[in-house]
Each structure stands twice: as structure tokens, then as C-alpha cells.
Predict the structure.
Amino acid sequence: MKKYKPVVIPSAAFAFCRYSMAILIWLSLFLHSKYLLVFVLIIFLLSAIFKIKKSPMILLYSYTVNKIIKSKDEILNEHAMRFAHLAGSFFSLICLLLLFFVNEKAGWIAVFIFALLKTVSVFGFCPASKLYECATNDSCCAFIKKS
């Protein structure tokens, strides 16, 4: 299994993706919009399927704003980003299942936790990406590695 596959994307596009997804999740919470959360799930799923370079938010920014105002490039681990998008999809799905089928109050609490986690990633520390890197790297999570 390859642990690291570098991919180059515009740094501002990556920031746009992080910020807009966090804003969408917070809006879903504040507006109590389950369908906005469905939209978030779809974006995360498409990002996981098409990978970071061709994810919807990256393409949107790259073909609009980045054509006018060029940004520096950023090198990311494609595998870690795919894992992060799958984790976002999974968390979105869990929130939606809670909201639609289990307990709406528990669902909105889960959405709040999801919004907090996504806000943390806005500030440059993506928990899911770090978890992937930790699990696939010898310098981290030594207690789960087999000797």
C-alpha cells in the first residue's frame, strides 16, 4: 500500500474548500437544515470519488477565482485527503441517520461535533488527515504498530 502520493493544488482553492465546507455544516446546524447536510455529504462523497485534484470545491475555485487571482500551489497527500473526505462522508451520513431515523436532538448534537471538527481543519489541522498519516507512518501511533 502506498502511504504518500503527492498532489499539487492551488493553496487558496484548498482553503476555499475547507472554509466553505465548515460554513455549510455550521449553516446546516443553525438553520436546522437536514438537506444542507445532504448536500455536504454529496460534496464529500464526490471529493472522495474524484480525489482532491478534481473535487467539486477545488474545481469550482480553480476555474473561477484562481483564473483571476493566482495562488501559490500546495502539495498534499492524495491518500490522506481521500481518507479525510471519506471520513467526512461517514460523519455526514451518521449525522443524517441520527436526524432522520433515530433522535433529532442527538443528530443535531452530532452535527455540532462535526462542525467543531471541521472548524479545527479550517485552521490547518485536519483530524482525519492526521489520523491517516499517523496510522500509516512509523513516527506516530507507535502503540498501535506491531513490533
